[in-house]
Design goal:
Elements (H helix, E strand, L loop, with lengths): L1 E3 L2 E3 L2 H33 L1
């Protein structure tokens, strides 16, 4: 990560790591939500 004129620049590897981490976190949240929804819909029947 470099700061140029007060702006932050990431190099390619750092950037892809950040994106990958974000995607993994989103996927984890989605999975939890889906599991909860599935469990609650099954228990209604």
């Amino acid at each position: 990560m470099k700061k140029i004129n007060g702006e932050i620049y990431y190099d390619e590897n750092e950037f892809s790591d950040i994106i990958e981490k974000g995607i993994m976190e989103q996927a984890e949240i989605l999975r939890k939500n889906l599991k909860e929804r599935y469990v609650s819909s099954v228990s209604i029947r």
